[in-house]
Amino acid sequence: MNRFSPDRLVSQDDWSDLTRVKSAPPIDIGRLHTHRLARLRSCIEETGAAMCLLVNPVSLRYAVDYRAYALFQSHIPTAYLFVPVDGPVVIYGALDSAPMADEFRKARPISVSPRRWRRQDLK
User: Fold this and answer.
1) Less CB within 10 Å around the terminal CB: N or C of the chain?
2) What pTM, to 2 d.p., does this model score?
């Protein structure tokens, strides 16, 4: 490994630790959530929609700090979040807590198995 190789620069990193200069301020989780929800709702409103349904694990984490999704959820959604322009934020099928959601409800399947499709439905 030469002196300026990327591996060596990363493994011997002593320049990016900003806590040596200034400590990080505490994160105000309530304010962060309020900002994120307001941002989501304004985007929904701008499109003219009345609600948004989030199924992506990253989106669930962003919107309500939901962390307990199964590894395969990005391919087979097991939990989903209903975000209306006005009203409560509801998470369906949560395996664990979602601290910022207003309500928790049992989930229903949101996709149909291809085996159930009929030929006339595909035309």
Assistant:
1) C
2) 0.67
Instruction: Provide the residue ranges of all domains of the chain, joining segments of one domain with +.
Output: 50-123
For residue 50, how many other CB atoms are within 10 A of its CB? 11
Residue 68: which pLDDT band, with cuts at 50, 70 and 90? confident
Q: Which two tokens stand for residue 56?
A: 């992506």
Least confident of 9-23, 52-66, 89-103: 9-23
pLDDT above 60: residue 27:
yes
**CATH T-level topology, domain 50-123:** Creatine Amidinohydrolase; Chain A, domain 1 (3.40.350)
* Residue 43 near residue 49 (C-beta atoms within 8 A): no
Cα 97 from Cα 11, distance rounded (Å) = 37
DSSP secondary structure letter of residue 68: -
Question: What is the rounded CA–CA span in Å between residue 62 and residue 32?
Answer: 10
Neighbour count for residue 101 (Cβ, 10 Å): 22
How far apart are the C-alpha atoms of 99 and 87, rounded to whole Å? Answer: 17
List the structure tokens of 99.
């601290």
